[in-house]
Amino acid sequence: MEQWCLILGCMAASHQQMTKFNVAGAHMRFESLKKKLPEPIKKILRPVRNLLVNKKDSELSFWKSRHALDKGKFNNSHYERIMLAMSEEHNQEFLKGKIVADFGCGPRGSLAWANSALLRIGIDVLADVYADEFTDNIISHGMIYLKSTEKVIPLPSAFVDIMFTLNAIDHVNNFSAMCSEIIRVLKPGGIFMGSFNLEEPASPSEPQQLNESIIQEKLLNKMEIQCYRITAKGTGETYAPFFDGIIPYTQGQEGILWVKATRTI
């Protein structure tokens, strides 16, 4: 009971903690305590937490904790392996001369590896906040960080050749609107590569609980699918099943979907 009370206390105080120097430590302590709770208790507390915790504060808190763990310089070396695997490519030659974007990029430099691209754009609703908070990191990535809103990506239509999104689109408030925006800014024939967490319970920073049906309806119906891979979650590294062997997935359980598709209209 003491742990549960402490979790609730952490949630209630979280908005104040976000503005303090020790935000990274507070976030890590919260996550550690959360892991100790039985799943039935998590289900009871989850709606309370979602009401108490501000979405943008929760996002920033996560990245501050990650920044502290990475000792002040974000580690982004893993993105190349993951994004090439999503693309079914062995090297970055397919990016040569292309405008490449990552929707929901965060501040970590997700496209820093893609130096053969003509232009690398990181799209995030908190891009301006990240620039202020993690300035030295942001300016070292060789990327343009573009602030999106919850309704529009401020880019011309049919502008992007290749669009990535990696466990990000469940972070938006309006899933339908942002799917439409991703399609709008992608050139006809442009390539979309998406990684989606399926049936993951909604949280302050991830208000959408996604499933195959809604992704198909709002996004993939307007594209031609080139590759569709789905796995149940593993027990180790998040994307390990895509490299070590897909784990059979049962509809309705938590899993991860990787899609490669092209815009047809």
Write up what this structure looks like.
- The protein is an alpha/beta fold and 265 residues long.
- 38% of the residues lie in helices and 20% in strands.
- The chain has ten helices and seven strands.
- The protein has helices at 2-17, 23-35, 39-52, 55-69, 78-87, 127-133, 135-138, 175-185, 212-218, 241-244; strands at residues 99-103, 119-124, 144-147, 160-166, 186-198, 223-232, 255-263.
- β4 (160-166), α8 and β5 (186-198) form a beta-alpha-beta unit.
- α1 (2-17) packs parallel to α3 (39-52).
- The longest helix is centred in the first third of the chain and has 16 residues, at 2-17.
- The radius of gyration is 19 Å and the shape is globular.
- Mean pLDDT is 86; it is low at 1-21.
